Amino acid sequence: MRRRDTAEPLPAECSQCTPKVLRSDRCIVLDGNPCSPCAEDIVLEKQLEELDKLAEKIHNKRRALRTVMNENHDRLIHIFPPEIGSQIFFHY
User: Fold this and answer.
1) Which one, out of 15, 21, 36, 45, has a CA that is 20 to 30 A from the CA of 52?
2) Domain limits at 50?
3) pLDDT in tens, 5-43
């Protein structure tokens, strides 16, 4: 794909932002249900979506935990009085 106003190509989309459906249409057998492989693929796709949600939840929890860890282990705050620490940051 190219941008309208230039000949420059559009940036590639992130794999996390694009849908991961390999095949958008599913087969429907005579009774209205998908065949066995398509049914299994649907189950696997749902499991992948659940894993993506779980991974996102873990990343959010870890990000919050890292913030707390940084607050607990910030040596500058524990070693110097606030007046000296603020002067250091003021100069840089």
Assistant:
1) 36
2) 36-91
3) 555 555 566 666 666 656 667 687 768 888 888 889 999
